[in-house]
Amino acid sequence: MNTSTARGAHRERGIRPVIRHGRSRSRLPWRGALTVVGALTLGVLLGGSPTSSARGVAHGGPTGTTPVEATIVVPGSSPAFEWPKVGQAAVAVRGIGIVGRSPHERRVPIASLTKMMTALVVLHDHPLAPGESGPEVQITRADAEVYETEAVAGDSTVKVVAGETLSEFQLLEALLIPSGDNIADKLATWDAGSIGRFVVKMNAMAGSLGLTRTHYADASGVSPLSVSTAADQARLAADLMGNTVVRGIVRKSHLAFPVAKKIWNANPATGTDGIIGVKSGWTFKASGCLVTAAFRTVRQQGVLVISAVLGQPDGLWEATDVDEALLDATTAALVAYEVAPAGATVATVPLPAGDGDAVLVAPNKARFAIVWRGLELTEWIVGGADLSPSALARDHTGSVVGALTVVAPWGVVAQFPLRLGVVPATASTASG
After folding, report:
1. Any idea what DSSP says for residue 215?
2. How far apart are CA 59 and CA 1, in angstroms?
3. For the structural domain made of 88-336, what CATH number should be given?
4. Residue 11 — pLDDT band, cuts 50, 70, 90?
5. Mean pLDDT of 247-275
């Protein structure tokens, strides 16, 4: 539904917000005093302060459902970070969003951080389940020559010989752990037939993920024309770390290969302070680049915190120090936000013929979301069948009549059913 249609549906149903908690941000202004349009009026208590109004948009779905939306802001000031004096950085929480980013971000070379997108595209085209090794890939004479050439040039490489066979899983290990440039090229040609065609896929994937300040020119990051920002790389790492196979790879300290023998992880941060990856990179043009991830616990809930830092002139050890400090600062900024107290009334619906109000109540256990102060959240109420007053008047007290979903910029942070609360006897005893 387009915006004008949604607004028209909003006015037609007379939907109005009522205050519950927090601070809400209006995006669809409410005009004049409370007005009932026809017989269908739904008042929703979705985040707000006594002087603020929420945003409500309703439309009829194919089953007669009526979603209602409101935007709230978690009370308090957004966290402040000490950003690096040179380069740029960003921090994020997987599934929630960017917590903070350096001011004045700009697109810069990202070196081997490019390989995160290489891995993402390969796994999109050739998915692996945990424990699977995937197809076997033959190492050709041309592959061996690429290795020799890149090794002489001083690039980051993994030794291969003609006739050697490596699985897709092994190639991903060699891509992400020792950061083999020749392995990135091999995966690109294996997947797309050429590096050029693979790069087209990389940029298409970046576009689909909303990485608007990212552009790839190669699969390895050797090219200074593969550029991005710290915030885009934090977002990319959050998507990549959603893959169980990747998480299992990037946390390894070393690998054992038939020809290359023992290979060490090029990421100096892995294994310290609970860090389980993700990717390091360095070139003369890019300087030190590092993306790290670590699981943290807030109110007995685990979250994956991600830090990305670019352009550190003193290399990867300096980048490690910046990343660790940002991970710690982000963890300290996280709070358990009560999106619904136990048994709270989340919505009220005026019943027809002046029979009072029906109420929609949350479960008898308080529901929390791990967020940070100042974060904007969207709350949706969706009816299981129909949230109209006439339908609710026929439902029995205690029956599930809808659901509340709380959404952060990157995904759902809380979701739970809503039950019909106590309503006047004339309505609750009506036929169901």
Report:
1. B
2. 8
3. 3.40.710.10
4. very low
5. 90
